[in-house]
């Protein structure tokens, strides 16, 4: 019964998506950061999402968050893949230096990982994602959460809501193809 409900919610979330894009492809969308939001369109056509933390431990070296991110990507690819395409939020401006360094490291790790596997990837500007989800290119976190909920999803935080918005943008504007 729960599976039918989930499937119905997904069909409502992306009603105009052709059946060819509902199956046989694993697509990944990411909102990169210490708390990385992710959304996955699986080969079964279902969309799953969540948030994963790459906060370093007290005794971790500086590169451990990036090794954990690499291992997480490999695990997603192994369990749900193979991943056919990746989209991520392309941030051009950060409020803090530390956030900029973390984002740059995660983006470098992601792009190198994808290049090694021949997986196409694309950064999507923040304003493009927000405009597509809410109609406003400068929408705040609450508006992004509300937009995801209006589409039938239940994001735990704004990182997950952003990843869902990126995935829906890719499916609806690119048909899941880069």
Uncertain runs with pLDDT below 50, 5 residues or more? Answer: 1-15, 18-23
Write the CATH fold name: Nucleotidyltransferase, domain 5
Task: Describe the global form.
Answer: globular
Range of helix content: 40-55%
* CATH class identity: Alpha Beta
- What oligomeric state do these chains adopt? single chain
Secondary structure category: alpha/beta
Give the DSSP E fraction (strand runs of 2 or more residues).
Answer: 15-25%
Helical stretch tally: 6
Q: Indicate how many domains the architecture comprises.
A: 1
Rg: 16 Å
Total DSSP E strands: 5
Major sheet: order of its strands? 3-2-1-4-5
Structure description:
It is globular and about 40 Å long. It has a single domain (2-174), classed as Nucleotidyltransferase, domain 5 (2-Layer Sandwich), CATH 3.30.420. The chain has a five-stranded mixed beta sheet. Helix content is 48%, strand content 19%. By secondary structure, the protein is α/β, with parallel strands linked by helices. It has helices at 2-13, 64-80, 97-117, 126-134, 141-150, 158-174, and strands at residues 26-31, 35-41, 47-53, 83-90, 121-125. The N and C termini lie far apart (35 Å).
């Amino acid at each position: 019964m729960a599976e039918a409900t989930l499937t119905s919610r997904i069909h409502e979330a992306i009603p105009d998506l052709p059946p060819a894009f509902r199956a046989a492809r694993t697509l990944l969308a990411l909102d990169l950061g210490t708390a990385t939001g992710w959304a996955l369109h699986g080969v079964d056509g279902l969309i799953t999402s969540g948030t994963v933390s790459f906060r370093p431990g007290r005794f971790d070296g500086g590169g451990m968050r990036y090794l954990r991110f690499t291992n997480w990507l490999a695990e997603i690819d192994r369990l749900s893949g193979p991943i056919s395409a990746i989209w991520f939020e392309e941030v051009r401006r950060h409020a803090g230096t530390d956030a900029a360094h973390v984002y740059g490291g995660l983006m470098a790790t992601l792009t190198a990982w994808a290049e090694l596997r021949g997986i196409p990837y694309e950064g999507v500007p923040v304003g493009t994602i927000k405009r597509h989800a809410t109609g406003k290119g400068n929408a705040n976190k609450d508006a992004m959460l509300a937009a995801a909920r209006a589409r039938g999803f239940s994001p735990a935080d704004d990182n997950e809501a952003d990843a869902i918005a990126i995935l829906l943008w890719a499916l609806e504007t690119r048909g899941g193809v880069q």
